[in-house]
Amino acid sequence: MQTFNPFRLSRRSFLQYAACALTLSAASALSPASALAAAGENRVLILYFSRSGNTRALAEHIHSRVGGDMVELKPAVPYPADYDSVVDMAKKEQEADARPKLGTEIPDLDRYDTVFLGFPNWWGTMPMLFFTLLEEHPLGQKTVVPFCTHGGSRFGRSIQDLRRLCPEARLLEGFEIRGTRSGGAQADVDAWLRSIGLLPA
Ligand SMILES: Cc1cc2nc3c(=O)[nH]c(=O)nc-3n(C[C@H](O)[C@H](O)[C@H](O)COP(=O)(O)O)c2cc1C
């Protein structure tokens, strides 16, 4: 096998090589996220919904580690602020198998290979907003990475629902945590991202 010998390069090739090496070493000094972006490879989208901030805390940490674009999903008609009212409304939406209208513009999904989906467990699965999202914007064969906050029921039925809604996707192992612990979950999130190959070991 021929080994690389910089002394055998022409002056022009050597200068090109040196410029490239400088760029790469500058990129590796950055965070993993900006290193990915600098290499022009970042095709990650983080889509999340959060009513009271727990899932948002995870989304923001994931974003700080893997970079890419992050979009907060909102319903066209905002959910009530009062907890009991939103609990009732979410139950009714689920019983009616409703598809609440999205109030967020979804970016062109062709720009992404990997889509994180972050949601709170609502009545045992994703809020119905995600059913609207995934039917209106199919994820095809993309890599899909779920993360969820909850009050004790973990992912509930959401992974089965995701498999049904994204039948061709490469669904990676997700991350779930109680909502009350989401603010201090950075180390656990990093370990999970490493275990699924989305952060360098
Ligand atoms: C409408 C509604 C339904 C919920 N249903 C469940 C449930 O079935 N199981 C569960 O463990 N937690 C349930 N929770 C608790 C939330 O999943 C939990 O508080 C979550 O961390 C909230 O995330 P957020 O702050 O990002 O909105 C529910 C909360 C709401 C508002």
Structure description:
By secondary structure, this protein is an alpha/beta fold. The protein has one domain (about 30-195): Rossmann fold. The protein is about 40% helix and about 15% strand. It is built from seven helices and six strands; from the N terminus they run H-H-E-H-E-H-E-H-E-H-E-E-H. Strands 1, 2, 3, 4, 5 and 6 form a six-stranded parallel sheet that branches. Helix 2 crosses helix 3 (about 55-65) and helix 3 packs across helix 7 (about 185-195). Mean pLDDT is about 85; it is low at about 1-40. It binds flavin mononucleotide. Flavin mononucleotide (FMN) binds near residues 53, 55, 90 and 122.
First-to-last CA distance: 29 Å
- How much of the sequence lies in strands comes to 5-15%
Q: What's the CATH class label?
A: Alpha Beta
- Tally of helical runs: 7
Q: Count all strands and give the number.
A: 6
**Overall tally of domains:** 1
User: Can you list the ligands bound to this structure?
Assistant: flavin mononucleotide
Poorly predicted spans: 1-38
Mean pLDDT: 86
Which architecture would the CATH scheme give at its second level? 3-Layer(aba) Sandwich
**CATH homolog superfamily:** Flavodoxin domain
The computed structural class is alpha/beta
Sequence of secondary-structure elements? HHEHEHEHEHEEH
CATH topology: Rossmann fold
Helix content: 25-40%
Nearest-angstrom radius of gyration? 21 Å
The largest β sheet comes out as:
6 strands, parallel
Large-scale geometry: globular
